[in-house]
Predict the 3D structure of the following.
Amino acid sequence: MSPSASEFAFELELCAHLEARRSGIVARQLGASVADPGGRILDVVCVAPGPEFEDRTAITSETVPDAAIESDVGPGRARYWKNAVPDDCHPDHARRAVERACEIGFFERERRKGREYVRQVARYPDWYGRLVGIENKPDLGRPGDLEAQLRTDVSLALVDEAILATESYVTRAHLNRIPDEVGVWRVHRDGSRTAQSGALESDLEVEVEVIREPTPLPVDEPGIEPLESRPGRTDIAVVPPDEKARARRRLAERAYGKGWRTYGIPDCRACEPTDPADTGATLPHCEWADRLVDANSRCGPSCPGYEPAADPDEIDLEAERDRRTPWVADPTGKRRRQSGLGQFE
Ligand code: SF4
């Protein structure tokens, strides 16, 4: 695959570019279906900060489980844990959500008369604003399911804006094939690199040319989610606004917890990670392939350029995210005391 066609490299470079220019959270590869979980994965999601963004960063660096947010717990009065989660929540799921909420510091618990009670450490804040979903298709000559994916984004309207990002020259015919509401960006990448005085200098640059602005999508109205398609027929689900609102919150929470630095750095001598001062993030650049590489899918002994690294660099991408974005890796938290399940047993 040529560098220009590498969706992985394209995605990482675009994320680094967006992170440097937008406030809030940038994340990638997040589920954005409601009726058919996993049916639609958004390549990139940008979450604009809401009025209480800082309150969210003070709670936990992780994704808060939806059942814990939905719970009738609140920060004031502790409740028996079984009564704290929504009635429609399966007991196993409820238990896991309570455990997770305690583990990440969103709930604290106490023992009374042999029963476990929980409360929120803080009121769940109004922390996110607009959600933007970006579909990456560097090469429009190989569109795959692009049209169907974008039609889903528009008819479901889970995100406030849907955008197609490409490296291809965008023709009128391309624009006619995708819904009018979808914004279109042409992304110009300059991956030229020069070695000077033995040191690698990177001038990896990304510019975004707006070909068409997106039209805001009706996130507060019912959405239509296409499900299975058969010849002559497509099953759909109508998604009511309250379900969409919950799904939007789940999406924002997943974005907050996950971010976009979810790639690995190849354990290979050919890997020369980029300098975040130049590229906005430590990106897994391979000298042998002369492009960014996905350590999880392409790297290893089966690659002809592979040579095990003698002393692999320790690169802490979480610490980098903490330094370079408003996400906080280790908030002091609001727990009055740390409580593990073990202390009750
Ligand atoms: S395994 Fe291959 S693609 Fe991966 S860093 Fe090494 S040479 Fe590059």
Remarks:
- Residues 266, 268, 270-271, 286, 288-289, 293, 298-299, 303, 305-306 surround iron/sulfur cluster (CB under 6 Å).
